[in-house]
Amino acid sequence: MIKLEMLRVFRTVAEKGSLAGAAEVLGRTPSAISMMLAQLEDDIGAQLFETDRKSKLSPLGQLVLDESSRATDAFSRSLDAIRRHAASLAGTVRVAAVPSAVATVLPGVIAEFRAERPDVRLEISDVDSDRVRRRVMLDEADIGIISALSDDNSGGITIFRDDLGIACKPDGRIRSHVNAGSALSWDLLALEALIANPLCKLVSHPVVDRAIESCNLEARNTSALLSFVRAGLGATILPRSAVDEGQDDLVFLVPSDPRTRRDLRKISRTNEGFSPAVNAFWLALRAL
Length: 288
Known about the structure:
Blueprint: H1 4-16, H2 19-26, H3 30-44, H4 59-86, E1 91-97, H5 99-104, H6 106-116, E2 120-126, H7 129-137, E3 143-149, E4 157-168, H8 173-179, H9 206-214, H10 222-230, E5 236-239, E6 251-253, E7 261-267, H11 276-284
Parallel strand pairs: 1-2, 1-3
Antiparallel strand pairs: 3-7, 4-5, 4-6, 4-7
């Protein structure tokens, strides 16, 4: 039976041109190398070298060398991939996350993670919390990041918490009423069209409920929501972290009736079967 080690020894002899040269590279005696070559030739049923000095290959020997090179190179690449994966330096991590997490939390985590493990492939998908849970449950994602109310006991590990509020234009009706002395209330959403998104359902307020029912524009992507607000299409509900307070083309208002705090939580089916790469990313998603 031809074994991979036989091919590796044969390749080394052919490349070095002598038993002594191969023995030095492989750390074996010339007699041991000779015995393995003899066994390989017996298994093949033909001579691989034209002379006993092993300095010149036969035509068949050249073919075997080509195939041996391909086989041993492929084996070496496979071993390297396995070792790198075991060391968390390679592999794939599938993350399903709500859009606000993709826009705010993940960029910093990914930058830090890639600095330590640049060969890991990261597959990020942004969907709402229900779809995140579904993908994790169906093993379509290794790690999920969901949105939940801070007092929600539905599970997951909190990695970030901030306020939900109203994102609107600085020259719109909502901002004008606030400037005129109106209280910061979710009632303000009645003044402009609501651009709905899944986070709106986290707010427990009748005006928000009515606005969702009558809404005719909905989006999930945070960048799209902010673009729609900037275009004057209405106001929306977003977490504070999603709105850059340094920009003067948006206003973020935090109502207190009720004050609504949103958690970002990481979830998984189980972390007992994590690959090293997935486990490393799970640990990188620590509380901020």
